[in-house]
C-alpha cells in the first residue's frame, strides 16, 4: 500500500485547520493511502529527511506552512531538478486553500523570470485549492508520472573525498551558496570577483563544488588568486554538473542534506549569492538551524547579497526577503546590495563573532 507524508501540525482543539486536516485524512484513507505524520507529531531534520523521503511514495503539504514545511517543499523540488533517484514518480501536492503558500510561489515565479529556475515548478509542486484536488493530483502522478526536467548526465564517474590544508593559513571559511545555472556574464563576473576577494583577504571559500554558473566562477576566482577552496557534492549531482578544477578539499556525501550539513560545519560565515531553488533551500536550512539554536550555526553570520538587476529592474532576492518576513530578526541575517560591501560586512560580522585575522 502506498504511503503519503502529510505536513503540518494541529496545535489544539480550536485550531482553524483541524476540520480541513480531518477532511484530508479521510480522503487519503478512503483512497487507499497509508499516512505518515497524520497527527503532526513527527519532526524532519537534515539528518533524517532523506530517510523520510525514501519511506514515502508521495507528499502533501497543508496550509499555513512552517519554515520547516517550506524547506521540505523546496527540497523536494530541488530533488526533482537534480534527478534524485529517490524521488522518481513521487508526487508533491500543496494545498493552498488559504493562499498561505503564495509567498513561496511568488519567489519561485520571480526566480523563473530571472532565469535561475529553468523548469516550470508548477509541474512538480502541484497546486490544489481543496482536498479533492489533492487526491486527483496524486492519482494522476501514479498513472502518468512526472514531466522530464530536461537535464542530462554529463559524467559517470566521481571522486572520493580528499583533504588538503591551505598553503597559507586562512582566517576563516566563507560558504557561498549560489546558482549553478546563471549564464549572465555580469553575474558570473560577480562570482569570480568575490571568489578572488575572499582569497585576497585570506578567507577559505566553501561551495557546492559545481563547475557551472556562479558556483563555478566563485571557485575559479578563489583558485586563481591562490585561495583555499573546499566543497561538497553528491553522486547524482556530480553526474550532471561535474567537479571544478583546483579544489583543495572535497567532501563526498550521499545526499543533499548531509552535503549541506558538512558545508555548514566547515564554514564560519555564509553569503547567499543570486541563485535558484537550491540556494533558497540552503538559506532556509541555515535559518532553521539558527532558530533551533543548533551548535553548527552558533555565532555564524548569514548575508544575503540582494544584487540589483538592472535588466529586470529589481533586487534579486526581494521576494526571498518578503517570504522570510514572519521570521525576520536582526540576528538571523543581514542584507547587502553591492558587491564591494560584502567583504567589509563579513569582516565586521566575523570580528563580532570572534573570528578575526591574526
Topology:
Blueprint: E1 3-6, H1 18-30, E2 34-36, H2 49-54, E3 58-61, H3 67-81, E4 91-95, H4 102-114, E5 125-128, H5 131-144, E6 173-177, H6 185-200, E7 204-207, H7 213-224, E8 229-233, H8 235-241, E9 249-252, H9 256-265, E10 269-272, H10 277-291, E11 302-305, E12 308-309, E13 314-315, H11 318-323, E14 334-336, H12 342-352
Parallel strand pairs: 1-2, 1-3, 3-4, 4-5, 6-7, 6-10, 7-8, 8-9, 10-11, 11-14
Antiparallel strand pairs: 12-13
What brief labels describe this structure?
about 350 residues, alpha/beta, Rossmann fold, 2 domains, five-stranded parallel sheet, 12 helices, about 15% strand, globular
Can you count the helices? 12
Tally of extended strands? 14
Strand order in the sheet with the most strands: 9-8-7-6-10-11-14
Radius of gyration: 20 Å
Helix content: 25-40%
Structure overview:
This protein has 358 residues and is α/β, with parallel strands linked by helices. It has two domains: 3-144, 3-Layer(aba) Sandwich (Rossmann fold); 173-352, 3-Layer(aba) Sandwich (Rossmann fold), CATH 3.40.50.450. Helices cover 39% and strands 15% of the residues. It has twelve helices and 14 strands. The strands form three sheets. It has a seven-stranded parallel sheet with strand order 9-8-7-6-10-11-14, with helices on both faces. A five-stranded parallel sheet has the order 2-1-3-4-5, sandwiched between helices. A two-stranded antiparallel sheet has the order 12-13. Helix 7 links the parallel strand 7 (204-207) and strand 8 (229-233). Helix 1 packs parallel to helix 5, helix 3 (67-81) runs antiparallel to helix 10 (277-291) and helix 6 runs parallel beside helix 7 (213-224). The chain starts with a strand and ends in a 6-residue tail after the last helix.
